[in-house]
Design brief:
The structure is a single chain. The chain is mainly α and 198 residues long. It has a single domain (10-196), classed as Arp2/3 complex 21 kDa subunit ARPC3, CATH 1.10.1760. It is built from eight helices and two strands. It has helices at 10-30, 36-51, 66-73, 77-92, 100-121, 126-153, 160-169, 171-191, and strands at 53-56, 59-62. It has a two-stranded antiparallel sheet. α4 runs antiparallel to α5 (100-121) and α5 (100-121) packs antiparallel against α6 (126-153). The chain is globular and about 50 Å long. The model has no long low-confidence stretch (mean pLDDT 86).
């Protein structure tokens, strides 16, 4: 779900960088020192999950885990995703450096929204946390796919078809992300519930 270099108009690219820089600074200020190990683990998980992609026509699909990242990191999720995307761009040319700001917005904004949703509705029981975690995981991918489609649509009519295909291609990913997030949150609620607190 990475947007490649040269796809977006220059104005969108610059706007994406400006918004991402502001959100990254805000996210870094909201990150407490004791959360750094959790942030490092989730950044590594995001980095690896996003590397395993399945080509599908002009696009590709892969795990994104913005919902899970948001549920576990809250406001720090934007920083985590931004770092993961930067490393992917530098090491593997995934997405590219000019599209980095837009890619960070595409996955970082849904992550923060899902983090708020999880903390707001998680309740106190393991079962509820598992269900809300599953919903957050699925919603993170839905929101990311919608932002992707909107960003691609700014590239002109040539990208409308790709935007539609990208939305359709991520339907199975939404289901898988929901299951993975629910299982992960449920496991953490059982063995280390403190990790779910913000």
């Amino acid at each position: 779900m990475h947007i490649s270099d040269g796809v977006l108009p220059l104005s969108v690219t610059i706007g994406g960088y400006a918004a991402s820089a502001a959100l990254t600074a805000w996210s870094a200020r909201r990150t407490r020192t004791e959360e750094m190990p959790k942030l490092a683990v989730m950044t590594a998980a995001f980095f690896v999950a996003s590397l395993i992609s399945l080509p599908l026509g002009p696009t590709s699909v892969h795990l994104l885990i913005p919902g899970l990242t948001g549920a576990l990191l809250g406001p720090s999720a934007f920083l985590s995703i931004g770092l993961g995307l930067l490393l992917q761009s530098l090491l593997f040319q995934f997405g590219g450096l000019t599209a980095l700001g837009a890619n960070a917005l595409m996955m970082g904004l849904p992550a923060m929204a899902c983090g708020w949703f999880f903390q707001r509705f998680k309740g106190t029981t393991r079962r509820r946390q598992t269900i809300v975690g599953s919903l957050a995981g699925a919603a993170g991918t839905v929101l990311s796919a919608i932002v992707l489609a909107v960003l691609l649509a700014t590239g002109g009519e040539d990208f409308f078809g790709v935007a539609k295909l990208a939305l359709a291609a991520h339907v199975p990913v939404i289901v898988i992300e929901g299951a993975v997030s629910g299982l992960t949150i449920g496991f953490l609620a059982k063995v280390k519930p403190a990790l779910l607190q913000r």
